[in-house]
Design a protein that fits this description.
single chain; mainly alpha; two-stranded antiparallel ribbon; 59% helix; 4% strand; transmembrane; calcium-activated cation channel activity
Length: 903
């Protein structure tokens, strides 16, 4: 399969994962060729403008076509493409405003609303993700501004024999003295990246301090609760202060409850099975009665009431052995099963409740402290009253700010030693998955290769297929099959993380981010760039680490041309796919028409907005930036294509976060911090490539500069982590102890890190003047004749310790919920049940039936009540044709509505 065969169908705008998954097979000489064999390394063909246009034009054409379709279908399918503008699960104050439903009104809204709207009305992590994409675009664009004016002239006149666009790359330079330009540019560009990463980390520290120390967030129960994953075992359940310090207020003990958890799951499943049977009965009975009362040939409708035979014939029945045996009434059988399941839950609950009250078999403990400062001190083990916990109890076995909805209860009951063992096994399993991923993708490519299959007996007829069909099979089937296989990688990793004992969904997602990042860098980038399989180059790197620069220098430049087209395909195909959202649209329609028949199913589909998995989306674009950085000094043209591609992704995700997505997970900025540090891999690999290239050319001066830069990057990495990681993990004690409403009145000399720098020059929070309009800046501006409109952004960029301080961030958050909302108030029951395993407190689900015009649902409700099973028919109905629907205007009035608590 040739590059042209793959590039053109991919350019038609298919799933963006296809490009990622098939990337190694797009390079001549790749081990992941479509026939699954390994070829010798060959130099890729020259990059030419016609070749790039051949990929760009069909990609652009298909993108425009698909966006035109999107504009047409967006209004009829508001539930898919703009639910955040109207759906009741989004509070009215947080809905994205639209002045009309005109076809292009969304463009005006997209342009008018800035990213801060997402912070104010969605979530902190959603805002940070958009900021990450903007930071990625800025890095690539800054690289264009630095590298193109210097390196393009140097490379183009380098004396080499390269042709067309290859003349703009380092390979066209034959004079070693010209390599000083590449070394100096590397210092400038990579130095800027190091500054940007440190600046963003400082900025995020200030934002997190302002966000989570604001009154509304600091008063939450989760802010003053610490989760101990390996607590003291022999401590009285009533004496929480002895175990966890004098400032401890109450505790929730977690014990092993698997039998109870299983019993609760069985109970709920049986209730839902009963509900399905009841709804099926009401649907079929309504249709039978309507048909029996249909007008006769004379046009007169029958007025006879429904007979018992008609009603009874609609009751679902099932044979004892599915196809044999006596038929039994499914509803009556389900009712008996529900009663038995409810009784078993009650018995097991009493048994485990007694154990929990005695503090036996405790595996984890949630401890509520008097306030947020006390919880922070306990989390850091620096309370004035030393907490008598095991000496090896480190921050890895404690967590703070955990929401009840994030807890994976079955994993909390896992002993810490077991959890650590399982995590080690999970790391080994994922490492093997990454290492040998080339095998399944090669197998898929082999199976999808028509020319290869035609060589087998009985399959010769494949060669006789029409050329358009052959082109479709050879061009479409391999990337689609490989894409389908690759799309399951994050899901597999998430399942492994949860099976390995991650205590919360957030910690599991952070683990997925780390693993998927490694997968992206190794399989999507290095396997492609090195024209080899992971099983070939990883052992070589381990056994001969001193040859890494030469290995990279010998292989990476030859694949640079591929990434010019790679960014085009990714930017156009995947960004349009993000907006079109074909899979959700088709799934919603098919499930609505053919699968979901009960009010509960229809309600869940309607009210469950699409989420976003941070562990899946961050690594993909982190890898984008890494690729751009590696080629920044080797083939600077890549930076321009990366800038365009990432910009398209930014706008597609901004649309989704404004109109479609409701993030269901908060990592508290940890995903963003991790992604920033992962970008450094691009700096390291890029520097190693330059060291190797300069070494191969025997350019001593540039080599020395590159080595010094590499060592300086290591020192930078170590120092920034040493000083910033503690601030990213927890808040300074003197800062968290301050009153959030009076921090501006504190003596500047007493302000903690990231607060002192800006306080002395800040005005009161209620001052309406520009907070950046300081006399110092005005003086500098007058002396340098720089307009304030230019100087202020420059100062904000180069002085993050001032402009990202907690005080400044409080101004930034002035109109957000964190600053504006009142502190949450909890009832005694809400506090009592907050961190209690749902298996101890959840009641059997209400059987939700649709109301019918013949009164059958009322009879079923009364009959179920006699069996002590609660049932309601409010807010849902079934028509004479058996179609079920529910009231969408007031979801809070429905029996299945659950009011959220701001823990």
């Amino acid at each position: 399969m040739s590059w042209q065969q793959v590039a053109q169908p991919l350019a038609a705008g298919w799933n963006g994962h296809a490009v990622d998954a098939l990337a190694p097979s797009l390079i001549p000489g790749s081990a992941m060729a479509s026939n699954g064999t390994s070829d010798d390394h060959t130099t890729s063909s020259s990059a030419s403008l016609p070749a790039i246009l051949a990929a760009f034009i069909p990609s652009l054409t298909s993108a425009i076509l698909l966006l035109s379709v999107f504009v047409v279908i967006r209004k009829p399918f508001r539930r898919i493409y703009s639910p955040r503008t109207y759906i009741a699960v989004i509070p009215e104050k947080d809905r994205t405003p639209v002045s009309s439903l005109k076809r292009f009104e969304w463009l005006r809204t997209l342009r008018r609303l800035d990213d801060k709207f997402v912070l104010e009305h969605s979530s902190l992590d959603a805002y940070l993700y958009l900021r990450f994409l903007r930071t990625a675009v800025f890095i690539c664009f800054a690289g264009v501004c630095i590298t193109w004016p210097i390196l393009f002239p140097v490379n183009a006149t380098g004396g080499g024999d390269a042709s067309e666009l290859d003349k703009l790359g380092l390979g066209n330079v034959h004079d070693n003295k010209r390599l000083y330009a590449h070394a100096v540019v590397a210092w400038l560009f990579f130095g800027l990246i190091l500054f940007v990463i440190a600046r963003e980390r400082l900025w995020l520290i200030g934002l997190r301090q302002a966000w989570y120390l604001a009154r509304a967030n600091a008063s939450r129960l989760s802010s003053r609760t610490v989760l101990y994953l390996d607590p003291p075992k022999n401590v009285s359940a009533e004496d929480v202060q002895t175990a966890f310090g004098q400032e401890a207020k109450s505790q929730w003990i977690v014990t092993t409850t698997k039998p109870l958890d299983d019993a609760v799951k069985v109970r709920d499943d049986k209730v839902f099975a009963l509900e399905d049977a009841e709804v099926s009965f009401l649907r079929h009975a309504s249709k039978k009665i309507t048909k029996a009362q249909a007008p006769d040939d004379a046009g007169a409708a029958s007025r006879e009431p429904a007979s018992e035979v008609q009603v009874d014939s609609a009751r679902p029945r099932q044979k004892s052995w599915y196809v044999a045996g006596d038929a039994y009434d499914v509803i009556n059988h389900a009712r008996k099963s529900v009663k038995e399941a409810v009784s078993k839950v009650g018995e097991k609950r009493d048994k485990y409740q007694a154990q929990q009250d005695e503090g036996k078999h405790r595996c984890a403990v949630f401890v509520e402290y008097a306030d947020q400062p006390a919880a922070q001190r306990a989390y850091c083990s620096e309370s004035k009253h030393r907490i008598p916990v095991p000496q090896d109890l480190t921050s890895t076995s404690r967590m703070i700010g955990v929401l009840p909805s994030e807890v994976i209860w079955k994993n909390l009951a896992m002993p810490q030693a077991t959890r650590l063992s399982k995590k080690s096994l999970a790391n080994v399993a994922i490492a093997l998955l990454i290492l040998f991923w080339s095998i399944p993708t090669s197998i898929v490519g082999t199976i999808a290769n028509v020319n290869y299959l035609a060589g087998f007996d009985g399959l010769h007829w494949l060669n006789n297929l029409p050329k358009p069909v052959l082109g479709l099979l050879t061009g479409l089937v391999p990337p689609l099959l490989t894409s389908l296989l690759a799309s399951y990688v994050p899901n597999i990793m998430r399942a492994v993380a949860k099976a390995a004992g991650e205590p919360t969904t957030v910690s599991a997602e952070l683990q997925v981010q780390a693993w998927y990042y490694a997968f992206q860098v190794i399989q999507v980038f290095l396997v492609t760039a090195l024209s080899s399989s992971a099983t070939a180059f990883i052992p070589k790197i381990i056994n001969e680490p001193h040859h890494v620069p030469e290995l990279l220098a010998d292989n990476i430049p030859s694949s640079s041309n591929f990434y010019l087209t790679y960014f085009i395909l990714q930017g156009l195909a995947s960004s349009v796919k993000n907006v079109m959202n074909w899979s959700d649209l088709v799934q919603y329609i098919l499930y609505e028409m053919f699968v979901y028949k009960t009010p509960r199913d229809k309600f869940n589909q309607y009210s469950s907005l699409k989420g976003i998995s941070w562990g899946k989306v961050y690594p993909k674009f982190t890898n984008f930036v890494i690729i751009a950085l590696v080629y920044s000094c080797i083939s600077p043209l890549v930076l321009g294509f990366a800038t365009i591609g990432l910009s398209l992704f930014y706008y597609s995700y901004k649309y989704n976060l404004l109109f479609v997505v409701q993030p269901k997970m908060e990592s508290k900025g940890k995903c963003y911090t991790r992604a920033l540090q992962q970008i450094l891999a691009g700096v390291y690999i890029g520097e190693l490539c330059l060291i190797g290239l300069f070494g191969l050319r025997k350019a001593k001066g540039p080599s020395v500069l590159a080595v010094i830069l590499f060592l300086g990057t290591i020192v930078y990495h170590v120092l920034t982590n040493r000083y910033l990681k503690p601030l990213e993990d927890h808040f300074p004690h003197d800062l968290v102890a301050q009153d959030a409403n009076s921090s501006s009145d504190v003596d500047p000399e007493q302000q903690p890190l990231l607060s002192a720098a800006g306080t002395s020059q800040q005005q009161d929070d209620d001052d309406d003047n520009n907070p950046h309009d300081h006399s110092r800046i005005q003086g500098i501006g007058r002396r340098a004749h720089i307009p304030r409109q230019v100087l202020t952004p420059l100062a904000a960029f180069f002085e993050p310790h001032v402009y990202a301080s907690r005080t400044e961030m409080r101004r930034f958050l002035r109109n957000t919920a964190a600053e504006m909302d009142p502190p949450p108030q909890y009832s005694d029951d809400e506090v009592r049940n907050a961190y209690q395993n749902p298996s101890f407190r959840s009641s059997a689900p209400v059987v939700w039936l649709p109301r019918d015009q013949y009164g059958l649902s009322k009879g079923e409700i009364e009959s179920l009540a006699k069996d002590e099973i609660e049932a309601l028919d409010a807010g849902a109905w079934v028509d004479e044709k058996g179609n079920v629907d529910f009231e969408k205007k007031d979801l809070s009035a429905l029996p299945v509505w659950k009011k959220g608590v701001a823990y």
